[in-house]
Design a protein that fits this description.
290 residues, alpha/beta, Arc Repressor Mutant, subunit A, Rossmann fold, five-stranded parallel beta sheet, 14 helices, 5 strands, WH-like_DNA-bd_sf, DNA-binding, transcription regulation, SIS_dom_sf
Length: 290
Amino acid sequence: MDDTKDLKDSKKLISDIQAQYPRFSKGQKLIAQYILSNYDKVAFMTACKLGDTVGVSESTVVRFANALGYSGYPKLQAALQELIKNKLTTVQRVEMANEYRDDYTILNKVLKSDMDNIRGTLEEIDKKAFEDSANRLLKAKKIYILGMRSSFAIAQYLGFYLDIILDNVHIIRMDMGDAFEQIVRIGEDDVLIAVSFPRYSKKSYQIVSFAKEKGTHIISLTDSLFAPVASIADNTLLVKSNMASFVDSLVPALSIANALIIAVGMKEKEDIKQHFDDLEQIWDKYSVYE
């Protein structure tokens, strides 16, 4: 089974479990009952942990995932994560982290999780969407970059470096007046990059919808095809952002931002070389750096 089908099927996962329940074996029924009552916890359990919790073998858990039509337990787990990604409260996320026994365990788990997320992003990202995004940025009359709450860190980083390469970049800021006032002149020759991660901001979706109505090309940098901004984007750059705890992993998003900056920069190599020559002279004259 391909990953796209697994992703789409997550919306009806709970109803599928309920419908198939009478046909499950005794052990599978125990798993089904636990998932229906605790799917937010199961989403972050290994197959072994889930088996131990309900009193069945790990192989029974794997067969349960197969019975639901998934190619393996990780695909079932991913579907559960899609279901809860935008529903978890901050308190629930903190509770998910109670297995972190000490500081080194935290360091180890978080760094390994980030590495897994980057690896997964590289394997699954739409290469054509990435290439088209870089080309669209070069052709754009004006580039708007949007990111709310924690996503603003990625938007600001992306905007900072794109602004060095290009001279038509505007970061939408919440401390600079209403967001709609900043994009009121947005049009079909422009590009809007929307960075959006759970819990998804309603305001982001409203701004992207407004830009879409104006005919603007939308590039979304997000973690799911179910993300509100992805549903109306022209190009979606999907990154893995599995939660280690109450803090989302933005490391893969930063890596994609880096790649996008370099891809645009290499297409403008001669222009940015002159630009950096000019900057070096300014930095030297005014002693900007040690």
